[in-house]
Amino acid sequence: MRCYCYYNLAGVESAEPFKGVNLKVTTYTDGSRTTEKIIK
């Protein structure tokens, strides 16, 4: 299972992406994380 969280450049967290630049953090069940930069 994966959990997605989005952060804007001010560090505010959301379940949905913000308009502009976002950091998408994916947390896996083993506790590892990956981060992607998304521009919306």
Structure in a nutshell:
The protein has 40 residues and is an all-beta fold. It is 0% helix and 57% strand. It has strands spanning 2-7, 13-14, 21-28, 33-39.
For this entry, give a set of tags:
4 strands, four-stranded antiparallel β-sheet, elongated, 40 residues, mainly beta, single chain
Would you mind describing this structure in some detail?
- This protein is mostly beta strands.
- It contains no helices and 4 strands.
- It has a 4-stranded antiparallel sheet with strand order 2-1-3-4, with no helix packed on it.
- A hairpin with a 5-residue loop joins strand 1 and strand 2.
- The chain is elongated and about 30 Å long.
- The N and C termini lie far apart (about 25 Å).
- The relative contact order is 0.34.
- The mean pLDDT is about 95.
Number of strands: 4
Whole-number count of domains:
1
List unreliable stretches of 5+ residues. Answer: none
Give the overall average pLDDT.
Answer: 94
Order of helices and strands: EEEE
Structural category: mainly beta
Largest sheet: 4 strands, antiparallel
Strand content: over 45%
Shape call: elongated
Q: Which strand order spans the largest sheet, edge to edge or round the barrel?
A: 2-1-3-4
Count every helix, treating DSSP H or I runs of 4 or more residues as helices.
0
Distance between the first and last residues' Cα? 25 Å
- Rg over alpha carbons: 10 Å
In helices, the fraction of residues equals under 10%
